[in-house]
User: Fold this.
Amino acid sequence: MMTFQMLCFLFLFSVFILCDANFSVPYISVNTERLIEDLKILGQFSDGDYPGITRLLYSKEDKAARRYLIALFEKSGLSVSWDPVGNIFARWEGSDPRAPAVASGSHFDTLLNAGLYDGTLGVLGALEAVRSLKEVGFEPKKSIEIVAFTSEEVSRFGIGCLGSRYLVGSLTVEELLKLKDSDGVSFENARQSCGYIEKLRESMIAEDYYSAFVELHIEQYHILEDEGVPIGLVTDIAAPSLYTIEWKGPGGHAGSVPSYERQDPFLAASEFALNLEQLVLKDPKNTRATIGRVEVYPGSAGAIPRSVRLSLDIRDINEAARIKVKEQALEKAAAIARKRKVTMETLHNYSYPPAKMDPRIVEVIEDSCRAHNFSYLKLISRPFHDSLFMATKFPTGMIFIPCKEGKSHVPDEYASPEDILRGVEVLAETLARLSYQ
Ligand SMILES: [Zn+2]
Assistant:
C-alpha cells in the first residue's frame, strides 16, 4: 500500500519532470480526412488532364492556389504575409514572439502533369500539424511559422528552388530579372501579373530569423516501402552540378562521306554517354550522372550532324566526389573529341553545394518518432528540396513518408492516409518540441 509520503514524492517527482522539460506535448489528434480534403481541393487548381496536376509558377491556377492557401491559413488564426516573389508565411505567434521562430513548409507548384502530394504535403501537413496542436490547447513558446515556397520545380523558368533560394539570398534580383519562360515571358512580368507588384529587392533574412526549419515530404523513391518503415529521417541532401557540352564537326552528305572520313559530333556524344555510364558504375551507390537533353543540329535524316549539345547533370552528397566525376568525365569528353577530330566546348551552368541536415534537429525528429512508437530509418535524399537551400542558413531537418512504389512527378503519385497521419504526427511533435528549445 502507498503511504502519504510516497504519494507526495510521486507528485513532486512528476511536477519536477514536467518543469524540467519546460513543457509537455499533449496527445495530438491529427485530422487526416481534413488534410486529404485540403490536398484534393488544392489539386483542383490545375491546368492539366485529371488526375495529373499542372500548376506552374504565376499561372492563373497558381494564383487561385495562393488565394486558397491564404484563406486556409487565416481561417486557422495565423497571420499571413508574403515577400516580393510570393513566398507565403503564416505565423502562429508564440509566448516569446521575439525568439527566432520554428519554421516548416514546402512548395505548392508542380511539374507538367504531376502528382498530388509532392510539396503540397509539406505545406498542408504543416498547417494540419499547427491545427492539431491548437486543438489540444498547446501553446508555443517560440512562434511557429508555415512557409509555402514559390516554385521549387524547374517547370516554368528552368530554375529549381526559386523561392527558397531567393529567401536565403542565393538568388539575386539581377539573376531573377534575366529569367524568361519558354514563351519569352519575363519573370518580372509574370510576377506582376500574379499580383506581386511590390518592387523586387534582395531578401535580407537574418541567420537567426528561424531557429529551425523542418520539411515534411514524400520520399519519391521506395526505400521506406521496401523496408516496411513508416518514417524516414533525412541526414543529407545530394545536390546537382549541371554542365552543357557541345561537339562540332563539318557535317556532310549522309550518302557520299564514308565512315572513315567523318568527323561526327553525334558519335562523339554517343561514345561519351557510354563512357559516362562506366565511370559512374565504379561507385554506383553514390554518384548519379544523367544526360537528360540532347540537341542534334541540323537534325536532318540525310545529313551528318554539325553539332551535338547535351546536358550533363551530376549529383552527390559529397562535393569532392562530384567534382572528381566531373573532371574525369570532361577529360574523357576532350579525349573523344581529339580522337574523332571534332571541337568541344563546355559550359558550367550551376553547382549547388550538398546539404547536411542539422544533427540536433534530426535528434528531435528521432525523439518524436520514439514518443509515438514509430520505427524510422535514416536516409539520404537524392532529389533536392527547398531544405537544400534553407540548410545554408538555418538548422534544417526533413521527415519523409513512403509513397506508393516510390513514384513521384507522375499523376499516380500516392501516399496512404495512414502514412500521412504518422508523418504529420511526427511533424507536430517535432515543431512543439523545437518551439521550447
Ligand atoms: Zn517536392
Summary: The chain has two domains: 23-238+354-435, 239-351. The pocket of zinc ion is lined by residues 107, 118-119, 152, 217, 385 (CB under 6 Å). The chain has a mean pLDDT of 93. The radius of gyration is 25 Å.
